Amino acid sequence: MDVLKKMGKEAMTKVTGTELEKKIAEACSNKPWGASTTMLSEIAQSTYDYQEYPVVMAQMWKRVHESAKNWRVVYKALTLLEYLLRNGSERSVEDARDHLYQIRTLCDFQFTEPGSGVDQGINVREKARHVIDLLNDRERLREEREKARANRGKFGGVSSQKMQGFGSGASAAGGGGGGGG
Fold first, then answer.
1. CB-count exposure of residue 29 (10 Å: 0-12, 13-18, 19+)
2. N or C: which end of the chain has fewer CB atoms below 10 A?
3. What is the residue range of the signal peptide feature (predicted)?
4. Is residue 171 part of a domain?
5. Residue 94's closest CA among 147, 151, 138?
């Protein structure tokens, strides 16, 4: 019976996605409001996990490359990327640098709202420029990451100790397990 439950759960996950994938989809939805800081923080925390990191980045890049009519999804994916640059693993910063060309192409993003004629592409263009500026200014990015790390301990939600580990350099949290032989 457990085998059937497991198979059912796996089939459901393939259809609806994992909890992490659902969270990223919600954070980058086409809805007119943004993702909560708590949600962004949970996604950023996932970049420190060896198995979840590639899921976060793949899902985010998929949304960055959405069509122009889904400009809100692209904008929110860039907002998530910007949050990851400050709060995600160091590996997510390296990954963003590897995708700098794709981000640069968004500086020419075009979408005008049919009917109203409102240029919604400007939101994506400005966010892309902001992300590029942050990636190109290594000193500012380092300062922003340090500030974010310091603030994580001050506010509720995600502790700075939970953010240690994969991609974070030396662990201030102390290691796990002991050195017994």
1. middle
2. C
3. none
4. no
5. 138
